[in-house]
Design a protein that fits this description.
The chain is an alpha+beta fold and 254 residues long. Helices cover 24% and strands 30% of the residues. The protein has a five-stranded antiparallel sheet with strand order 5-6-3-9-10, with no helix packed on it. Strands 1-2-7-4 form a four-stranded antiparallel sheet, with no helix packed on it. Residues 14-33 and 187-226 have low confidence and may be disordered.
Amino acid sequence: MSSPLPRPLARLGVVALALLTALAAALAGASAAAAHVTVSSDDAAAGGYGKLVFRVPNESDTASTVALRISVPPDAAMASLRTQPVPGWTVTTTTADLPAPREAHGEPITGYVSVVEFRAVDGGGIRPGEFQEFALSGGPFPDADRLTFPAVQTYSDGTEAAWIEPTVAGQAEPARPAPLLTLTAAADAGHGTAGTSTTGTDTTATDTAAAAGAAEHGEAGPGALALFVALLALLTGLAGVVLGWRAGRRTVSS
């Protein structure tokens, strides 16, 4: 008849199981965070012009991403907006009236590009395990700290992932956050960095080109932090239980 495990060893197993469960949850959270559709820019400043890069990871194991629909709310409206062509994808835009006219370069602006949709040609798209980047170029950006661009990701099996939930400061990140762009301080007079305009479909109300510059956006975020904390907790917990077990053995043997 086998004897039961010493109490410290039993505790070790229970604690290890709990910590491994927490680690698995953190890994799942990190994976979900990395799968978000995000937007970034190297040169977007309030009042200036810049390039926006939307990074779209494919989070399905079986279907390809075949469309991305980006909405531009009125509070993020730009007088000039261009799209960068992506091989294997078509792009269409939709315009809308502004709630109230705005002025850009001394000209009144009453309408703007409200929706940009990229769609893969037949048989194409973003396959499982891959990602793609879609770029827009425009301005002037509104005088704001942050801009939200709700997006809908469509898969080849007909399902959709709606990245439309607002991120509220001081609250936990929602499950499907809308791409959020942080603007830098107001730009100097002019169009910001000089350079050749992005080639693509011109959907501008004023014919102004934006500066080019690829945005490098890392995937680190709340998920990565949770993973680090879980790993640290796992190692600390295991070390503590092992030390307790050793102390117990010394007590028994003395």
